[in-house]
Amino acid sequence: MSRAVVTADLLRARARALRMPGLARNFEALCRQADKERWSFEELLAEGLAVEVASRSDSSIRQRLREARFPDLKTLDQFDFTAAEGIDASLLAKLARVEWIERKENLVFAGPVGTGKTHLAIALGVEAAKQHRRVAFVRAADLVRQLIEARDGRELGRLQRRFDRTDLLIVDEVGFVPFGREGGELLFNVIAHRYERRSLIVTTNLPFADWPKVFADDEKLTTALLDRLADRATVIVTKGKSYRMRRRATPPTTEGQKEPESTTTKKR
Q1: Lower Cβ count inside 10 Å, N or C end of the chain?
Q2: Residues 121, 261: Cα–Cα separation, whole Å
Q3: Whole-number Cα distances in Å, 189 to 102, 107, 238
Q4: Angle at 73 between CA 24 and CA 226, to 5 degrees
Q5: How does strand 135-139 pair with strand 106-110?
Q6: 88: alpha, beta or left, given left = phi > 0 and alpha = psi -120 to 50?
């Protein structure tokens, strides 16, 4: 076995022992490039460390995406803004910079079923994860079920602490399933606890005036919840027919062509 092979094996082993997988995978290619381009020792070391930093960043993003538990990975690039009904692409691009999360603000997507609310909510969640924010996605009915089970199991505090560590909580499909009084109160506590502390994205198929129907017709609780949710929030109102229904009703004219979702926006 040649000295070069022994040295390469030793470097690979030491990089792994130091938990530097990016360097372990790439040092041989870097050495070849350094030899070809006549890098100094300092330049080679700098490039090796840069590769490791990039590897750790990518690994962190993958971990954030797994922890978010998105049902699917959606991106803003997959959304056809040019064919949507007045959707403000520049507003979504601004929101994708996630500065609003730093300001502890909220975002609400409201509109009929199938008009792109969940797609856009996930896409912004993905952007937040890429910028190393902790994100959690949960459907409203599942969240209420988790809260009730945690309360009954005397683990509500632990669940709340998990949400406290989340920079962005996405609550999807508020309005599809009505909650009992206890479920509504538990959901209210989650939203109230995050007020001015952490950010929320909520998607709903109901106008705010109809929200009491979801919360056991409790007008007082619903008003208090909306007061906290909508304060300093951006509200994006989507309109049009369901994309899925239109896709079934309209035969494709070009192979692989997709009809975009229709949305309009409103900002508060």
Answers
A1: N
A2: 14
A3: 22, 18, 27
A4: 125
A5: unpaired
A6: beta
- What count of other Cβ atoms lies within 10 Å of the Cβ of residue 230? 15
Distances (CA, A) of 241 to 50, 84, 86, 116: 48, 11, 14, 10
CB atoms within 10 A of CB 232: 13
Query: Which spans in the chain are helix H?
Result: 3-17, 21-37, 41-68, 89-95, 99-102, 117-130, 140-152, 156-164, 181-194, 219-230, 243-249
Condensed to tens digits (0 to 9), the pLDDT of residues 212-235 reads 988 989 999 999 999 999 888 999
Q: Is residue 41 classed exposed, middle or buried when 0-12, 13-18 and 19+ CB atoms within 10 A define those classes?
A: exposed
Distance of CA 141 to the CA centre of its chain: 18
Helix (H, G, I), strand (E, B) or coil at 215: strand
Measured CA to CA, the distance from residue 227 to residue 73 in angstroms comes to 31
Q: How far apart are CA 258 and CA 263, in angstroms?
A: 16
d(CA 64, CA 172): 19
Tell me the angle at which helices 181-194 and 156-164 cross, rounded to the nearest 10 degrees. 40
For residues 133-162, b (16+ Cβ closer than 10 Å) or e, as one string? bbbbbbbbbebbbbbbebeeeeebeebeee
Sequence-ordered list of residues with C-beta below 8 angstroms from that of 14, at least 6 positions apart, any chain: none
- In three-state secondary structure terms, 264 is coil
CB-CB contact of 26 with 11 (8 Å): no
Residues 148-174: tens digit of each pLDDT:
999 999 999 999 999 999 999 999 999
**Residue 139 backbone dihedrals phi, psi, to 5 degrees:** -75, 145
Q: Strand pairing partners for 200?
A: 169
Instruction: Assess whether pLDDT exceeds 80 at residue 47.
Output: yes
